[in-house]
Amino acid sequence: MESKSERRSVLTVIETRILAAIADRIFPATESPGAVEAGAVEYIDRALAGDYAEFLSSYRKGLRALNRHAREKFGGKFVRLSDADKDAVLLDLEAGSVPHFKRSADFFETVRCHVLEGVFGEPRYGGNRGLIGWRLVGFPGQQFGYADAYINKPVDMSPVAADLPQDRKE
Amino acid sequence: MTVGGAIADICLVGVGAVGGILAKELASAGMKVVGFERGPAPRLEDYAPRDSIKFIARADRLDWVRHEPTTSRARRGETAELRYCTSPLNVLGGALLHWTGQASRYMPGDFKVFTDEIQSGNAGRAGADLRGYDVVDWPLGYDDLEPYYERFEWEFGVSGLAGANPFAGPRKRGYPVPPLRHSARMQLFAEACIKLGYHPYDTPAGILSEAYRPAAPFDGRIAERPACVYCAHCNFYGCHVHAKAATLYTTIPVAVETGNFDLRTNSKVFRVNVDDGGKATGVSYFDPDGQVQEQKARVVILAAFVFENVRLLLLSKTDARRFATGLANSSGLVGKYILAHGDVRAYGLYDDFIINGFIGPGSAAIRIDDFNGNNFDHTGLGFIRGGTIGTSGEGTPVGRMDVVPPEVRRWGKEYKEYFARYYTRTFDLNMQPETLPHKDNRVDLDPRQRDRWGVPLPRATFDFHQNEHRLHRFMAQVGEKIMRATGASKVWTGGKERPNRWAGGTRMGKSPRRSVVNEYCQSHDVPNLFVVGSSVFPTLAGYPPTATIAALSYRTAEYILRQKDW
Question: Is the distance from CB of B551 to CB of B109 less than 8 angstroms?
Fold first, then answer.
């Protein structure tokens, strides 16, 4: 994996802003942090530079089409719309009913999955910052194992993002 | 290391579940075995991170999957699309590295579906529509495999409790280690099944509940392995403590230790060679540098995944008339009657019970076989056969993010609140409905798409048909009923119409006209050619195939060793 400081975004500043606005509607900040705070945009940007490179062009086209639809439907850029109007645009996308964008439902589903991966994935991929996603749902992370089955009781372990080096300590 | 001079005793194609067993058995008896594995030898840090992005979200992006695509389509006439099938793993040790660990034996009736369902009149009483299917018996029975199931269980360390499942076949010996620790989902499911009058039991699991090392009369050379730590990263992951059974760290090291096993990784066989007399002479392969090489042998064993076993036979066709449509294909059945389970699920969520489904392996499961095989009365149901039903695993948030009742929107504030509250409060039942052998389900060579060596890709044509559709609906109803009995606050059913756990394509049988191999996985046409694995299954059964694949491997090895003059 490339070092953080050297890495440059594959998405443009504008694309990044639109994506962040989508991520915030898919998994919004409420009384707890949402997808943007978890680093889902960073997660996606990194993935598009690597394992998900094949999705880059569909992101480019999709984000453009979404912005066009926002303008046609509500007369403004997507990022400037109210939350309710943003959701209306996204619902059209999800329903596949955006004019001149045949595969909009597929695009929405792809982005939805990637945003949620960015919330709940292992932090080494750039998302789930501060283990926000895991804390929110009560997942203790990459535990070595569980000495108790925790049947009908909360797990009293803080989440960890630990990989193999710890495991190898004999 | 090279062994056996110019002509080896055995060319073994694929060193996974099957190849890992055959290599140990044959090399230990003094045979010079050359094993070809098209993938690399993986290191612990490659297969064992508890990383849900790598192994769940991006499972189809692993090198071990990407390097060997298939193409697939639902029916003839469609153009097959490139597909990265995650069932096989192109790596030393194969799919046993990432299996869930469900180690059920087949039931005695699973080997005689024709006798039990058609000849008996059961299909008629059920009102089943079996047009397009070719339902047959296996050429061997449960009793023939029983000693070899036992070998598998005691060499790999299967957790279980003998006598717990009233529908299981008789066994001479118990299990080497007791069942795995119970989880919340197992407890709720077992209680519900008892309430409904069913027969819940602990699934035999290829995951150790205690540290274990085989001892006489089993193979004491196999290393000791530790007990499961209940991290729940089993299905699609490698096991970081090696509690899960895999040839990579059980039988393969023993095979290598004999000095008779020449293991060649990153070596991809693309053809079985035959002489004018119709005997196999060895294989041609691409070495790690992509150079074409040849290895001669007295016996050739295809021990790859379903698609690859078929593909190799089809690629090995010759000008001679008898092999013009593929090697060992005088029956015309190479590639035909492939099989795969459907994926049917019932989900439950609980307002007043914490499940913590991220704890414990998926194969630490309670199952019932009350609706498997012909264990229940099918009169008027419109289908034959059934499937096992049990609790399912895979508990990370990435793996569970779509476990949402149909009326809850899958994004936005509502989704966030739902998932925050219920992630630790759901579990699902997984049904494994049997699929019958249908004439339209097959593997052949893709006419358009090739792999990076220029070799045509295997093309799967597969769909579920009328018996499956009816059975899937029935299984979903049963699952829903059980979930309600667990006291779930909400129950729903679903599942992808996505085939998994593949079998068939080189079916075994008594008649050379109606099958590709005999009961010893030996080609009817080419006596020194064996095809081993789930590809030989004539029918599928409502269980995962792994234990039966392993048992057939032990039995085939013994048969090969019994013949003196290869």
Answer: no
Query: Mutual orientation of helices A13-26 and A104-120 as an angle, nearest 10°?
Result: 80
The helix (H) or strand (E) run that includes residue B346 is: strand B344-349
CB-CB contact of B231 with A144 (8 Å): yes
In three-state form (DSSP H/G/I as H, E/B as E, the rest C), the secondary structure along B152-221 is HHHHHCCECCCCCCCCCCCCCCCCCECCCCCCHHHHHHHHHHHHCCCCCEECCECECCCCECCCCCCCCC
Task: Please compute the mean of the pLDDT values over residues B154-180 and round it to a whole number.
Answer: 98
Interface subset of B 402-421, CB within 8 angstroms of A: 410-413, 415-417, 419-420
Q: Which residues of A touch B (CB under 8 A)?
A: 25-28, 30, 32, 34, 51, 87, 90, 112-113, 116-117, 119-122, 124-125, 133-134, 136-140, 142-146, 149-155, 163-164, 167-168
Size of interface A-B (CB pairs under 8 A): 121
Q: Which residue has the higher pLDDT, A166 or B172?
A: B172
CB-based contact, B183 to chain A, within 8 Å: yes
First-residue to last-residue Cα distance in chain B: 24
Nearest to B317 by CA among B36, B525, B35: B525
Of chain B, the percentage scoring pLDDT greater than 70 comes to: 99
At B322 the pLDDT is 85
Cross-chain Cβ contact B360/A152 below 8 Å: no
Q: What are residue B381's phi and psi, to 5 degrees?
A: -75, -20
CA distance B367 to B370: 9
Identity of the residue in B359, B401, B415 whose CB atom sits nearest the CB atom of A146 = B359
Amino acid in the structure at residue B20: G
Q: What is the ipTM of this complex?
A: 0.94
Q: How far apart are CA B296 and CA B87, in angstroms?
A: 30
In whole angstroms, give the CA distance from residue B86 to residue B95: 9
pLDDT digits (tens, 9 = 90+) for A66-99: 999 999 999 999 999 999 999 999 999 999 999 8
- Among B208, B238, B327, B192, which residue's Cα sits nearest to residue B45? B238
Strands (E), B411-545: 426-433, 442-450, 456-461, 490-494, 500-505, 529-531
Question: What CA–CA distance (Å, rounded) separates B267 from B523?
Answer: 24
Would you call B416 and A152 a contact, using CB atoms and an 8 Å cutoff?
no
d(CA B114, CA B370) in angstroms, rounded, equals 20
Scan for tokens 């034959």, then name that residue: B384
pLDDT of B369-425, one tens digit each?
Answer: 999 999 999 999 999 999 999 998 878 999 999 999 999 999 999 999 999 999 999
**Residue B382 φ then ψ, to 5°:** 90, 5
Per residue, what are the HEC states of B241-279?
CCCECCHHHCHHHHHHHCCCEEEECCCEEEEEEECCCCC
- Here the tokens at position B372 are 């498997």
Span B215-238, pLDDT tens digits: 999 999 999 999 999 999 999 999
CB contact under 8 A, B61 and A164: no
Give A6 or B472, the one with higher predicted confidence. B472
Report d(CA B234, CA B244) in Å as an integer.
8
